[in-house]
Design a protein that fits this description.
Elements (H helix, E strand, L loop, with lengths): L2 H11 L6 H8 L3 H13 L10 H18 L14 H25 L4 H10 L3 H8 L3 H4 L7 H12 L3 H11 L4 H9 L7 H17 L5 H11 L3 H10 L18 H11 L4 H8 L3 H15 L4 H10 L4
Helix pairs in contact: 1-2, 1-4, 2-4, 3-4, 5-6, 5-12, 6-11, 7-10, 10-11, 11-12, 12-13, 15-16, 15-17, 15-18, 16-17, 17-18
Length: 318
């Protein structure tokens, strides 16, 4: 991880009472720290639920646990001579943070929920590049950001390597136990038919590249803007503002009355799954899932699944 990220985290944790929100923001400043914290939380069972965002991981580990996780990482300084592959880490860290920033802005403009989930997918969307950099010595030159638009570089990966970084990222995030909504978004952010959350991350990736001064396709930007609900003047304004636009602060949600398992079951509904599919995902019986969801309806005062999902999304719980 970047040494400055480590120092800032250390100063924050040295305060009498470091808030989970502050720790989350610091973790989200560094891709390596995000990966370490997410993996540690998933390995610990994340309070018997899935990790849907960095905030979930921080809550599961506690700020002290985040600090202990960070201490196990090596650190690099921005101005020190790069060791091994570290010269790839800093550009990737900056692009991941920029894409997270853009994803939250796109989500706000396009009326998308699940900001924590989108922020996590944005941070991890290019994590597969780390694997390909280690496996193929010529990989950095193959995907030089000055050599063409993102779609052209992905095509070069597929042509030369038979695989691309998005597919590798999907494999990694699945192995880390992340939810299908996150792994699918990471895996498909270069798909030609990107839609919903995938379109949000795909557009955010393009906006971040545009902000870096990298080549991008106006046609692809326009198409993704339409799919993500950010069209016309709003898209032009976003490109003009970025990267200087202020990222909207994710509002603190009301205390959630649902248990971890009830939230997991409700997220399954939000993904369009039936009781049996949710039960298989959670390793529960269908009757147990039905009981959880009946409790959800009662606690939220919802009359059906659609209203329950709408209420939970509006309040920032899923």
């Amino acid at each position: 991880m970047l040494a400055e990220s480590m120092r800032r985290l250390g100063r924050m944790l040295g305060k009498p009472a470091a808030s989970e929100g502050e720790v989350t923001e610091t973790v989200e400043s560094d891709l390596s720290l995000v990966v370490a914290v997410i993996r540690a939380a998933s390995a610990n069972g994340a309070a018997s639920g899935r990790v849907w965002g960095v905030a979930d991981a921080v809550k599961a580990l506690t700020p002290a646990g985040v600090g202990a996780t960070a201490e196990e990482l090596d650190a690099y300084e921005i101005f020190e001579p790069p060791r091994e592959w570290q010269h790839q880490l800093e550009p990737l860290r900056r692009h991941s943070v920029a894409t997270r920033h853009a994803a939250i802005r796109v989500a706000e403009l396009g009326g998308h929920a699940n900001w924590d989930e989108l922020a996590l997918a944005a941070m991890l969307h290019d994590v597969g590049r780390l694997v390909l950099t280690r496996l193929y010595p010529g990989y950095p030159e193959l995907v030089d950001q000055r050599s063409g638009a993102p779609e052209q570089r992905v095509q070069a990966e597929r042509r030369e390597l038979g695989i691309d970084h998005a597919l590798v990222g999907g494999v990694l995030t699945r192995r880390w136990g992340l939810p299908p909504a996150v792994t699918s978004t990471v895996e498909r952010h270069h798909a030609t038919d990107a839609d919903g959350p995938v379109a949000v991350i795909a557009l955010a990736d393009q906006v971040a590249h545009h902000g870096h001064g990298d080549p991008v396709s106006a046609e692809r930007l326009t198409e993704l803007g339409s799919r993500a609900g950010v069209e016309g003047e709003r898209l032009e304004s976003l490109l003009y503002e970025f990267p200087y636009a202020h990222t909207p602060r994710r509002r603190a949600p009301e205390p959630c009355p649902l248990s971890g398992r009830e939230l997991d079951a409700l997220r399954g509904l939000a993904e369009g799954k039936v009781y049996k599919e949710i039960a298989e995902d959670l390793s529960l019986s269908a009757s147990t899932v039905r009981t959880h969801l009946h409790n959800v309806y009662r606690k939220l005062g919802a009359i059906d699944r659609a209203q329950a999902v709408l209420i939970a999304r509006d309040r920032g719980w899923i």
